[in-house]
Structures are given as C-alpha cells and as structure tokens.
Amino acid sequence: MDDLFARLRPRTVLAEGAVWLPGFALPEAETLHKAITQVSAVTPFRHFRTRMGQMSAAMTSCGACGWTADPSGYRYSRTDPQTGQPWPDMPDALRHLARRAAAEAGYEAFDPASCLINRYAPGAGMGLHQDRDEEYPQAPVVSVSLGVPARFSFGGLSRSDPKRIIELMDGDVVVWGGASRFAWHGVSPIRETFHPQTGAMRYNLTFRAINAALFRP
Length: 217
Ligand SMILES: O=C(O)CCC(=O)C(=O)O
What we know:
This protein has helices at residues 2-8, 29-42, 92-104, and strands at 12-15, 18-21, 49-50, 53-54, 58-63, 66-70, 73-77, 114-120, 126-129, 141-147, 150-154, 164-168, 173-176, 185-187, 202-208. By secondary structure, the chain is an alpha+beta fold. The protein has a single domain (2-40, 56-65, 85-211), classed as Sandwich (Jelly Rolls), CATH 2.60.120.590. The strands form 4 sheets. The protein has a 7-stranded antiparallel beta sheet with strand order 1-2-13-10-15-8-5, covered by helices on one side. It has a 4-stranded antiparallel beta sheet with strand order 9-14-11-12, with no helix packed on it. Strands 3-4 form a two-stranded antiparallel sheet. Strand 3 (49-50) and strand 4 form a beta hairpin. It is globular. It binds 2-oxoglutaric acid (AKG). The site of 2-oxoglutaric acid has 12 residues, from strand 8, strand 10, strand 11, strand 14 and strand 15.
C-alpha cells in the first residue's frame, strides 16, 4: 500500500532548483511532533502583527535565531521578543532531517541556523511571498509539512509568473534553492479536516541558513 502511494506521488522537480519529496519526513513524524511540543512549551506560538495586520498562522522558532515580525518590518533575532530569552536550540532530529532532505534535493552543504514553525488552524494561510530576509542566497529553504493537507502555490521569480499548485500532505518536504531560491510561494487557507496526530491543525517547519551579520539581539 505504501509502495503504491509512493508510486502515485513520486519525487517531483517543481522548477529548476526546487524539488518536492512526498512523504520524506513521514518516518520521523512522531519525533517531529515531540520536538514541536518541546519548543513551543518554551517559546509559545503567537500571531505576529505586521503592517498588513495580524498573521493568520501562529509561529515560533528554534535555532541560533528566529524570524520575527512587527509593524516596523521582518527580521531574524537571537532572542524571542516575547520571552526576552534566546530561542531554544534546534533539536538534533530536526537539523538532521533538514540536512538529509536538502542533500536529497542536491544541496549537500546545507546547515540551517533557524527553524520557523508555523501552525495553521482551519482558515489560516499564507499569502504569496518570497523569502528574502535571510541574505544567504546560496542556501535553500527546506519546508516540512505535518498534519492536515495544504494547497501550496509555487511560482517563479515574478509575482505574476504562472504557479504550480500542489497538495502537500503529512510528511511531505519541499526544497527550493538555486534558480528557485526567490520563487514566490504561498499557502491557501487550510480546509476543515482531521488528522489523527494534529486534529484540525497543519504544522510547517521551514529551515533556513541566515547571514549571521543580520542577527539582532
Ligand atoms: O507553510 C508552508 O508550507 C510554507 C511556509 C512559508 O512559506 C514560509 O514560512 O515562508
């Protein structure tokens, strides 16, 4: 049955430098859920408020720095503005998974400095955007999906470029770097459905290498 599923959802190149690895993280799902629980017990999920309004996905981070947002902009910081403490270390299981996925997609040297954890309740999504805050274009973004499915749009370097729309399932990984590092992408509002481990929620882990000169206290 698993083999059939893998054959129906094969490894897929989405664009030059961008690879979709269906089910890649599934064997580690249990460990990943534990890691999310541990991290969020120390640095709770929160909805950042930006110039555009409150983000619908709740977020937290682990690693040497974490992504934060407020009405003045977006940045990576060494400490969580909510707790005033450094972000928790990135659990080894997360780092290893990200490195293995990057290598599988052709990025052997990837070493993530940060893991952003997004939690989507039904109706939450993420508008089309590019990941530009890292200033480390040589490293890819590694994105791991857990829980209920999501419709993911992946386009080109211009906002108006045609988009590939794929259904990301529990355990799927997408890696984008090289010619696709600044591809526009987004997540449609999550539909009301159920997953045995996450209930109605979807979690997404995005791993990134970041120019350390940018870290703010
Ligand atoms: O949730 C996802 O699949 C993508 C998340 C994302 O685009 C981001 O964190 O920048």
